[in-house]
Amino acid sequence: MALREKLLDKPNEFLVSRRDYFTLILAIVVSLIFIFNSDQPQIEAVRSWFIEQAAGLQQRVSWYRGLIGLREESDRLRQRATELMLENGTLREALLENHRLRRLLEFRERTPQRLLSARVIAKLEQAVNREMELDVGRRHGVERNMPVVTPAGLAGKILAVRETTSTMQVIENLNFKASARVLRSREFGIVEFQERTGLILTSVAKNSDVTPGDVVVTSEISALFPQGIRIGIVNTVTDDNPSLFRDITLNPDVEVSQLEEVFVVISTPPTGAPADSTN
Amino acid sequence: MRFVKYLLLFLSLLLLQTTLLPLMSIGGLVPDIVLIGVIILGIRQGAVAAILAGCLAGFAEDAFVTRLFGLSSLANAFAGFVAGYFSREKVKYNLQVTLGVVLATALVHDVIYFFIYTLGTSVGFFRMLLRYVVPTSFYTLILAFIVHSVWPAGLWGKR
């Protein structure tokens, strides 16, 4: 009972102790109601001021909302841009792939040999032993030592064959050798790869006719490679060594590091030439 | 009885404010004798009575004098609150205190009154203070001093 009375009394105490303020607030409210119901110029000015402030505030709120909207829009656009960038990358890849495949197709159509297209599925990029895994194998008719070519030229040869995959030894491998000749002067030589100098043409006599810019192709005396496949272009020719042969470096036609699709030469038209010991 | 006494007082003050005091106008400024009544009530009876009386008297004043209805009642309500703050329970009487309370109350009243009155006009705030507020407040202070001289117990007298 006492508690209830206390609770009931407290609001009264609160009102009584602050009656000055409540009376003032009441008087202010009543006066302002009368004042703002007036159409005097002073009140019009106050109304205009309030309207201006409200408009300014509304403008700021709208601006802020717009800013939030812009941020959301920006996030959406950024996300969309990322998606488009990825899509664009995929399309660009597809376009490049399309160009590559078109070139491969054209190459295949104009090449007399029977070609088996293959994709590079793995690369072994060691300095002394550069090899690549192809997605074709015994089941597809691939055999050991079959040449591997691209529209640009000779890429390598098959080193090992499994049921559905095979290993390609690329031309930039220290163990790779191919019988070759200079297309212009018909000079013979052997194409090798050295870690220090890159692709070279060896066993070319010092009095032979070889100059930078000459095209080097596989020779008809090779037992493995069909004749006339481009290998590279002569880069430098020097005779500074004490041996009987010239030092000839080549720029390979095939960019080995960028290989993605290749052809395995399944059958080679008979040349009638005897096989050489260096492939 | 007390209510009737103050009612008569305010009626008299309103009559004076609307008839006689405009004749005492100096440069368009008229002292506010109703405000002195509000101050008397605030000092003697406290803020609540002063606010209510000031507000009601302000409405009457607005009806006759001011074109902006509610303006005097608002200013008088504030004046009643300030005068009530300096009521006898809080400060001790002497002439300086009396005149100080009158001046403070008059300044609050006139600032509110003239601020709203000059809204939307070319009169700036400081010009409003110097041209209207301070002179009118001092004019009211002089009038309060005259009232105090004529009726010494009036402002701080018995209830």
What does this structure look like?
The complex is a heterodimer of chains A (279) and B (159). Chain A has 3 helices and 12 strands; from the N terminus they run αααββββββββββββ. Chain A is of the alpha+beta class and 279 residues long. Chain A has a 6-stranded antiparallel beta barrel. In chain A, strands 6-7-8-11-10-9 form a 6-stranded antiparallel beta barrel. The model of chain A is unreliable at 270-279 (pLDDT under 50). Chain B has 159 residues and is mainly alpha-helical. Helices cover 74% and strands 0% of the residues of chain B. Chain B is built from 7 helices and no strands. The N and C termini of chain B lie close together (12 Å). The relative contact order of chain B is 0.14. The mean pLDDT of chain B is 84. Chain A binds chain B through residues 19-20, 23-24, 27-28, 30-35, 37-38, 40-46, 48, and chain B through 46-48, 51-52, 54-55, 58-59, 62, 67-71, 73-74, 77-78, 80-81, 84-85, 116-121.
The run of helices and strands of chain B is HHHHHHH
Strand content of chain A: 25-35%
Largest interface: A-B, 22 and 29 residues
Write down the Rg of chain B: 15 Å
Assign the structural class of chain A, choosing from mainly alpha, mainly beta, alpha/beta, alpha+beta, or little secondary structure. alpha+beta
* Annotation field: number of helices of chain A: 3
In spatial order, strands of the major sheet of chain A run: 1-2-5-4-3-12
